Amino acid sequence: MYAQGLIGADGKTEETDAFLAAFQARIDAEEKIEPNDPMPEGYRRTLVRQIGQHAHSEIVGMLPEGNWVTRAPSLRRKVALLAKVQDEGGHGLYLYAAAETLGVSREEMTEQLLDGRAKYSSIFNYPTQTWADIGAIGWLVDGAAIMNQIPLCRCSYGPYARAMIRVCKEESFHQRQGYEIMMTLAQGTEDQREMAQDALNRWWWPSLMMFGPSDKDSVNSDQSMKWKIKRFTNDELRQKFIDATVPQAEKIGLTVPDPDLTWNEAKGGYDHGPIDWSEFKRVLKGEGPMNRDRIRARQKAWDDGAWVREAARAHAAKRQPAALAAE
Ligand SMILES: [Fe+2]
Ligand SMILES: [Fe+2]
Asked: What EC designation does it have (predicted)?
């Protein structure tokens, strides 16, 4: 039993051993935690950080691909890309709404993104140089996102888990449209094949970095696994992604840019070469090729939207006396 009526998220609940044990018992019993349930402040904060970061990634992720909407090579490609970029915007909105159930406002989250306190996935700090990059992003970046997000459908926090179910369905369409672009290019002219290979060369390693630092260097992993926010470690997910993706590259005649990649019969998976974590850290710190542009674009959108927020506030203020009078 846990203390009914105590709202952990208000910061006033005393986190006694009994409270923490009762909370852990609910998690262990695979019960979903809902917004008004008592929860440890650390659990709430971890989720706010993770869901906020996830929401920002969806929104910032619209930028590199949006860059190609006007230059898609056919009407069919343009329609598919437009739909995909819109989906990502929708994912961002679900996720901001899920984070808001934990007592943080969308304004606060946006301010944290703009002043650098909140992060988004570093993968979006790389530029999209050719049309093949749109294929590589769908195939690899959305493919990696699916590996991360399928276990999140079983996350212990109800609103996040439910949002992920729909998001994952859409991500699998993104992955397929990306792979189909790569397949078409790989079967095209020599120049097109080279373009596809070049995109794979540039996006492969950053995609592996999307799973985060190696388990031995991952600071938040253990507690998140215990709380069933995470179900697999970073390295486990990265391994699943590599094992699923390497045969897909082979099938379309492209080469994964890792000379150390070898099939390991004993573990039933691939061994891969070393990941350049210094690059990961550099990009995370803001030194990637596109960090400044991405934040500048989000800042502009926020500034351009000031009149909408102002109008919404004025409208709400006008309605308030009428609503009170009607009571
Ligand atoms: Fe998405
Ligand atoms: Fe996606």
From this structure: 1.14.13.149
Contact 102, 93 (CB under 8 A): no
Ligand at shortest distance from the CA of 54: 1
- Least Cα distance to 64 among 44, 43, 81 occurs for 81
Which residues fall inside 5 Å of ion ligand 1, going by CB?
A: 58, 88, 91
pLDDT tens digits for range 183-219: 999 999 999 999 999 999 999 999 999 999 998 887 7
- Model pLDDT for residues 214-257, shown as the tens digit of each residue: 988 877 678 999 999 999 999 999 999 999 999 999 999 999 99
CATH number where 195 lies: 1.20.1260.10
Note the pLDDT of residue 219: 73
Residue 148 falls inside a structural domain: yes
**Ligand with an atom nearest the CA of residue 166:** 1
Question: If you measure from the C-alpha of residue 325 to the centroid of ligand 1, how many angstroms do you get, rounded to a whole number?
Answer: 44
- Asked if residue 12 is part of any domain, the answer here is no
Interatomic CA distance for residues 65 and 138, integer angstroms: 9
Q: Which ligand is closest in space to the CA of residue 139?
A: 2
Distance 19 CA to ligand 1 centre (A): 36
Token pair belonging to 243: 């094992």
- Does 219 reside within a domain? yes
Q: Is 176 exposed, middle or buried, given 0-12, 13-18 or 19+ CB atoms closer than 10 A?
A: middle
Q: How far is the CA of 310 from the centre of ligand 1 (A)?
A: 29
Domain that holds residue 94: 17-319
